[in-house]
Amino acid sequence: MDLSEMRGRIRTDLHDEDAANYRWTDAELDRHIGRALREFSLAVPLEATTTLTTAAGSRDLSITSLSDLVAIEALEYPAGEYPPSYVRYSVWLNTLTMLIDSTPSGGEDVNVYHTTLHTLDVSSSTVPPRFEDVIAGAAGGYAAVEWSSFATNRVNVGGQDVWRDYLTWGQERLADFQRALAKHGRRNAVRVRRLYSPAAAPADQSTVQGP
Questions:
Q1: Which domain, by its residues, includes 63?
Q2: Which residues, listed in sequence order, are joined to residue 92 by a DSSP beta bridge?
Q3: Structure pTM?
Q4: CB-CB contact of 89 with 72 (8 Å)
């Protein structure tokens, strides 16, 4: 589903299908879609792998090329070994530092396993089809809540309680969205990971084993 199709689904949900008299402009819906997409991405991000290259005598790697980065999950160095070799690391601003004893030589590959924000534009989408309705519902909910605020104390063709109906409808959709994020979010998902040991133990633990 691309951005145009997402807008169409939201307009259907909002009963805003009269092209000659839209209640929401495309730009307004795009803004609500973008907000829902970002929140979804932070809970259920896109998994990606990027290969970076070491500089001679340095343990530091620039991660400026990792666009829309959500989190770094693991670092494989040296790359291409079997079983894979994962190393500890730290991140500060745009610099990722491998916490290894020896400094690398130049031109060595390092595989970075990371998560990114999803994309949804006029030609493509990285959102899994099973979550398209989740994002559409959230974007529609944001649109309805915004419109209810705008319509409060205004004369409405549908009656004086139209704004309240939109508010209730929008809040219900957003509640559904939050439940979906809680159910499918990475923090609550059962995942087996033994890729690397964290650089530092959480504050409430004295030692940390592999996840």
A1: 46-116
A2: 95
A3: 0.82
A4: yes
Question: How many residues are given for the chain?
Answer: 211
Q: Are 99 and 61 in contact (CB under 8 A)?
A: no
C-beta separation of 16 from 23 below 8 A: yes
Torsion (CA) 94, 99, 103, 105 in degrees, nearest 10: -60
C-alpha dist (Å) from residue 67 to 1, 3, 10, 174: 22, 20, 28, 28
Q: Is residue 191 part of a domain?
A: no
158 is a domain residue: yes
Structure confidence by residue, pLDDT tens digits, 47-104: 999 999 999 999 999 999 999 999 999 999 999 999 999 999 999 999 999 999 999 9
Give the full edge-to-edge strand order of the sheet including 69-76. Answer: 46-53, 109-116, 69-76
Which band of pLDDT confidence, cut at 50, 70 and 90, is reported for residue 192?
A: very low
Burial class (CB in 10 A: 0-12, 13-18, 19+), 33: buried
Which H or E run includes 96? strand 95-98
